[in-house]
């Protein structure tokens, strides 16, 4: 049997001596501060995880990858790996120029020769790579609302690895894993990709997959960037470590992969396969809806449940890594064991139990029992430590609406009611307070208003993370900014969007601060509802009408909503 999977693969790092010299020279180059996603990509470029790529894709490679999942020379590669930058930065560069790539602390990780610079067709990229130009997809949202407008391509010279202070002993480069497999004599290795905590069904299916492939098992979780709202990687790794004891040590190992996932379903599965092949694996488990991002704007799944397996199967020979298809495992109560759902012959005579991810999150949120047949007590204990019941977690209430709609008044009333109940600190981040203390230097251009809302979101996410209640009441006219704030906060707790749906006519009639009058006279430029748009929230958690309704009952509606979501304990 071939042992090609065990011999070293090329890396993009230079020797230690050259790196010291390069580092000194790179200090004088124009430098780009990498985003968290770009750092993940660069690490896997440099250590061979993205072999055969030698750097960020050139325009010809990018076009070819987007169009037909292949580099310009025909090599299979499904995912555009691009260095996206702002237009201002791109304009400073000459083609052929070297730039330094720095991490967020300013450490130079690599240099790159810019051979290509272009403005991509992002709508086409979204359509081809993710299957739809639909902002409900986290990577499409990232593409349009976070990624820079210009892509740079060119070869990369690695100077040093990105620094990780956490779980260092569990992180391995492709060559370190290959050396480990050589050392322990593993010739066949099946990799299991995961971004969620492992429960008993996963353990059962990984056991079966390893047995079926007559291979050793590498649990290879992603700790780079996953999907907004996923359990944080620190908690997940502690959960994995708790489960590792359940596996035979001689045939199972775990390594962490610093990958920024795109949640691209079928293409992502092929990409994951190629990355695992580079890490020395011979087999790869692909599940139902592998790396699917959930529902699209129409409320349907982005990809069919077996699309990823079909695309992988089509290319596995060329990839040189075999797929083990992952069965949907369910618990059969009478036999007290997990079995593949489609292999149960006596379905009508047995009790089949299964807990979905959504149901698990609900049980954790409400502090309900999680049965032992579903998960290991050690894993549940770890999850409960990070995610106490909702009524003990921090959360954010985010009011949005026109100027003069009554947001601040309702927010103040809500704050007082929550303080009366006690139990958690409450902070009000009202538009005027924030403008004075956080954003005094900002004007009212779209860019500055976005920045102001992002600052509010940042402070609210820190309050939420630390178990407090944040009440925000800015105008927040733009849906994409509100979504970004929601993602920041939902990493730590609940985000409750309340649309104060007072009509523009009513707000103008009230005009407490005389702002509408000034806007009509053209003395205030870019005024929401008059000369600047307001994106009405499509699915707020709550919409309140303030015309002919007193403030107290509006605040009470919000309290009832919080109670129904389990965020505050019901009053007896």
CATH top-level class of the largest domain: Alpha Beta
Q: Could you tell me the strand content as a percent range?
A: 15-25%
What is the number of strand segments? 20
Per DSSP, the total helix count is 20
CATH superfamily heading of the largest domain: P-loop containing nucleotide triphosphate hydrolases
Report the end-to-end length measured between terminal Cα atoms: 70 Å
Number of domains: 3
User: Major β-sheet, in short?
Assistant: 7 strands, mixed
Mean pLDDT: 91
- Kindly name the structural category: alpha/beta
Share in helix: 25-40%
The CATH architecture of the largest domain can be named as: 3-Layer(aba) Sandwich
In the predicted model, the low-confidence regions spanning at least 5 consecutive residues are none
CATH domain topology of the largest domain: Rossmann fold
Rg over CA atoms: 26 Å
Shape: globular
Task: Please tell me about this protein's structure.
With 572 residues, the chain is of the alpha/beta class. 38% of the residues lie in helices and 16% in strands. It contains 20 helices and 20 strands. Strands 1, 2, 3, 4, 5, 6 and 7 form a 7-stranded mixed beta sheet that branches. Helix 9 packs antiparallel against helix 13 (377-386). The model has no long low-confidence stretch (mean pLDDT 91).
């Amino acid at each position: 049997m071939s042992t090609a999977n065990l011999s070293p693969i090329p890396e993009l790092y230079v020797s230690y001596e050259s790196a010291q010299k390069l580092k000194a020279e790179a200090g004088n180059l124009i430098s780009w501060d990498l985003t968290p996603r770009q750092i993940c990509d660069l690490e896997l470029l440099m250590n061979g995880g993205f072999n055969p790529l030698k750097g960020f894709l050139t325009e010809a490679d990018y076009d070819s990858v987007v169009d037909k999942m292949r580099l310009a020379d025909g090599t299979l590669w499904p995912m555009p790996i691009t260095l996206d930058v702002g237009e201002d930065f791109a304009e400073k560069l000459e083609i052929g120029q070297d730039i330094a790539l720095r991490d967020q602390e300013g450490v130079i990780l690599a240099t790159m020769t810019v051979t290509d610079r272009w403005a991509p067709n992002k709508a086409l990229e979204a359509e081809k790579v993710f299957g739809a130009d639909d902002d409900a997809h986290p990577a499409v949202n990232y593409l349009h609302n976070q990624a820079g407008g210009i892509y740079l391509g060119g070869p990369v010279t690695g100077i040093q690895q990105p620094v990780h202070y956490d779980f260092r002993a569990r992180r391995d480069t492709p060559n370190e894993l290959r050396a480990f497999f050589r050392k322990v004599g593993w010739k066949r290795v099946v990799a299991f990709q995961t971004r969620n905590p492992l429960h008993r069904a996963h353990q059962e299916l990984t056991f079966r997959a390893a047995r079926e492939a007559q291979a050793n098992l590498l649990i290879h979780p992603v700790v780079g960037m996953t999907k907004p709202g996923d359990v944080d990687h620190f908690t997940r790794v502690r959960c994995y470590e708790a489960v590792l004891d359940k596996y035979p040590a001689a045939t199972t190992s775990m390594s962490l992969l610093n990958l920024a996932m795109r949640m691209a379903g079928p293409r992502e599965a092929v990409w994951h396969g190629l990355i695992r092949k580079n890490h020395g694996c011979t087999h790869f488990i692909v599940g139902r809806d592998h790396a699917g991002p959930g529902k699209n704007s129409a409320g349907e799944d982005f990809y069919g449940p077996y699309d990823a397996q079909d695309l992988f199967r089509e290319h596995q020979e060329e990839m040189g890594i075999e797929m083990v298809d992952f069965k949907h495992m369910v618990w059969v109560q009478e036999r007290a064991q997990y079995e593949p759902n489609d292999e149960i012959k006596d379905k009508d005579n047995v009790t089949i139990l299964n807990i979905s991810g959504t149901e698990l999150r609900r049980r954790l949120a409400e502090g309900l029992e999680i049965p032992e047949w579903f998960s290991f007590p050690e894993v549940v204990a770890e999850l409960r430590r990070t995610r106490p019941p909702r009524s003990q977690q921090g959360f954010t209430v985010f009011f949005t609406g026109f100027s003069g709609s009554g947001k601040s008044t309702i927010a103040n009333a809500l704050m007082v009611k929550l303080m009366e109940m006690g139990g958690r600190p409450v902070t009000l981040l009202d538009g005027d307070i924030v403008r004075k203390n956080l954003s005094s230097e900002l004007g009212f251009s779209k860019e500055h208003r976005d920045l102001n809302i992002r600052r509010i979101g940042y402070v609210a996410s820190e309050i939420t993370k630390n178990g407090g209640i944040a009440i925000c009441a800015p105008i927040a006219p733009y849906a994409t900014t509100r979504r970004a704030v929601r993602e920041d906060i939902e990493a730590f707790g609940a985000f409750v969007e309340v649309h104060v749906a007072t009509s523009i006519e009513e707000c103008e009639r009230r005009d407490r601060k005389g702002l509408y009058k000034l806007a009509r006279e053209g003395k205030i430029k870019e005024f929401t509802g008059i000369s600047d748009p307001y994106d009405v929230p499509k699915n707020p958690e709550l919409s309140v009408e303030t015309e002919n309704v007193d403030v107290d009952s509006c605040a009470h509606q919000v309290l009832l909503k919080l109670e129904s979501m389990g965020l505050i304990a019901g009053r007896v």
